[in-house]
Amino acid sequence: MSDAAEKLDDQTRLELEAAAFRRLRDHLRERTDVQNIDLMNLSGFCRNCLSRWYGEAAQAKGVELSKDEAREIVYGMPYDEWKAKHQAQATPEQEAQFAASFKDNH
Length: 106
Fold this sequence. Notes:
- The protein is about 70% helix and about 0% strand.
- The protein is mainly α.
- Helix 3 runs parallel beside helix 7 (about 90-100).
- It is globular and about 50 Å long.
- The mean pLDDT is about 95.
């Protein structure tokens, strides 16, 4: 852990991490022009990954949270609604980049 992180007490670190998560979540909600496949191709994660991690964290704490509920927390609306409003068809180039980037993950 860095010196800066060591200066923080557990509660402050938790609050800062939660604030950073909310800021990322809100940023992704606002940037509907950025497609999940673009996020995956550039960073290796997307909104679905974030919602899965959220659900896994809930499960680890004994909190019942469905996949759809976790996605709604991240997307700010039901996933099917978000897809209908904002998801574009992936281009062949995007699909090829995704396939090449994640070929070892199958």
